[in-house]
């Protein structure tokens, strides 16, 4: 053995001995994960962390040690413990520092409970369903959905149109009347394109794991290593200018932050930019994966059932009277959660932490990834039978099922549904996102049938990791819209 190999072996042994999980060797998982996080990091850097962890769950079950100090869980009970215990669950890890805006902590990047609760109190009411369903927001969303529907009929419009729709809807909610119109205005479209499908994954991970190496390599990264930094000058200046504008509509987040919060101008801009970014790729991708799935020949029956429901209802039928639309949206978010990746938290100090019957030492990084919670079958410790089958009917009462049986089954599925996270730190934009998705699907499937475009290649619609969200691996989703007879 060369001295280098001996040193390496000693270093690995030391890591193993120092691992806070040493006494928990019963944790399932690959042997190398007890010794090193290098394999996990390799998958992070190659944008395959989510599928890698999912493959470990398929092999080892709902509890897997993925690094010396990190354990992944996939059961509904574990998700409840990590994200809901004592209201908002365990504290976030420093991994969220990657998302600081203008070097400020926003609600999303606060780590501890009390800091988070303070910030959330300032703005939560703008995201309540009652505010979203009010005239200003709903009318604006419907109007943008109509514009989208008209563009589908014109054909030939390509380039992240769903993300443009999501961008215009979220800026409506944040800034109206200073919102964007990227569906039809090329200048606003440029801002959207700068923010969406971010390609700075490797650069930002390096800055997180090794700030020194990141600084040393800085000048070579873009030219030689092709590691792009995240640069969004158009979006920055749009938000900085808009956040300073007076007279935002009362339903907007900006109005709330100007009128009833102690935040200064930069913090208002940072919070707004964070919500803007959080509302583009997520809703855009969720719609994109769902429309793609509904367009596939294997889903023809589901598309037709959706069209039948929407076309037989009047245009202003409330969403709660469109059960199939709801089922299709839930199933899309279950199969293709727009944030599929681990949401890391620290096992808390001051108490014994037991998750899925395993005793977890304080300071261990624990997480669930929505993809695995939603796509692990009951035989592997998950919730959903036939988890890889797109089947909206699972969200509806089946023939021969009593109402009480259905309600119990439904409660079980909702416990294992994690597309919007869970607990007090779950997605604040959930009602806005659902309203956007439903308005757009109603517009599309009342007027059109959708088919996959022949130019799409196998593998292009696989989910590829960004920092926390995902995007289609081919970075495009081409669908044909054919007008239905009136
Ligand atoms: C289908 C669309 C969406 C999905 C799947 C989604 C998913 C999520 C998830 C999983 C989280 C939890 C993240 C964590 O624990 O680290 C989250 C948090 C958050 N989301 Fe969404 N989101 C969507 C749309 C939106 C929209 C439209 C907005 C804003 C306008 C938004 C704003 C936020 C914010 C501000 C947080 C942080 C909440 C907190 O820390 O209290 N999201 N989202």
UniProtKB/TrEMBL annotation:
The record's listing under CDD domains reads: CYP_fungal
Lipoprotein found in the keyword field: no
Which UniProt key words apply to this protein?
Heme, Iron, Metal-binding, Monooxygenase, Oxidoreductase, Signal
Matching entries from Gene3D superfamilies are given as: Cytochrome P450
Q: Which cofactor does it need?
A: heme
Annotated signal sequence range: 1-23
Which family does the record assign? Belongs to the cytochrome P450 family.
Give the protein name, as stated in the record: Cytochrome P450
KW Heme (keyword) present: yes
Query: Pfam families of this UniProt entry?
Result: p450 (PF00067)
